[in-house]
Amino acid sequence: MNLFSAAIVGAGRIAGLADAPSDSGPVRTHAQAYTRHPSFRLQAVVDPDESRRERFRAVWHVPEAYASIDELPAVDAVSICSVTSAHFPQLQRLMQNGSARAILCEKPVCERPAELDALLAIDHRLVLVNHSRRFDPAHQRVAADIHAGRFGELIAGRCDYYGGWLHNGTHLIDTLRMLIGELRVDRAAVSAPGKPDDPCLDVRVFAGGAPVDLFGFDERHYQLFEIDLRFTEGRVLARNFGEELIVEQVTTNNIQERYLAPASESPLRGLDDPLYRAVDVMAAHLAGGSAGCGATLADAAETMRTIWRAL
Length: 311
Prior knowledge:
Elements: E1 4-9, H1 30-36, E2 40-46, H2 50-60, E3 64-66, E4 75-80, H3 84-97, E5 100-105, H4 113-120, E6 127-129, H5 137-147, E7 154-161, H6 169-180, E8 184-190, E9 201-207, E10 210-216, E11 226-231, E12 234-239, E13 244-252, E14 258-262, E15 268-269, H7 274-286, H8 297-309
Parallel strand pairs: 1-2, 1-4, 2-3, 4-5, 5-6, 7-10
Antiparallel strand pairs: 7-11, 8-9, 9-10, 11-12, 12-13, 13-14, 13-15
Helix pairs in contact: 1-7, 3-4, 4-8, 6-8
């Protein structure tokens, strides 16, 4: 079909530089998602590094390559996969000039509150932010069960993350907002190393009256991203970055002791193809449908505001 054209800005790892076209297996790069999707053709790549963009172009058989988004002709969809500091100026430029009808930007969408305000002031048809768990069916299912009251009331939570408060804390805060609702920042302190100029923070937030503690982990040991949420009638564990979701519910034994037992569907497999599903949302929008995914720029704004409240 290939109804829509797509471009990728930034030819790094998440864009697909270390990946290659495949007809099967998980979809974990933007190039793989566009290449697999029947409604898209990957038309162009943009990267200032000539060697990298030409290597990307060769691997993914991309017809066009440019050094700057200023050279990019109009396309239907653009993925912004550049370094974090470039997200805001590139996204602002694309939104203002209207050269893309749909945009998918890697997180964090920007670095400063004034940048977010500037983006929100621009009228654009569709901007998605790649808070990947928003697009994952397993996380969507668990979130729906939590909000439906399947596990009772939240008692407390503990989460571990790595790689900087702005860089990966953004994923953690957005996932928690998806699962348990809006968060109030109580206190924060610098803890483990993260990225340059972006340390990890240890943060306590409250969801309603329940405390949730977030701990930065030093990735020089290994990378750790886990969520443990304890409710009055069960528990939800997201392990290995959310690739495995363990769901437990309270049951009673023959001497009336209450304990946790795995639910029949546990564990759920997560994060196999959220990028494909994000691209599918873009295709539906371009075909005249609705976004409805909880990961638009407007949806992501409160995640960013929560991040900044802890700084």
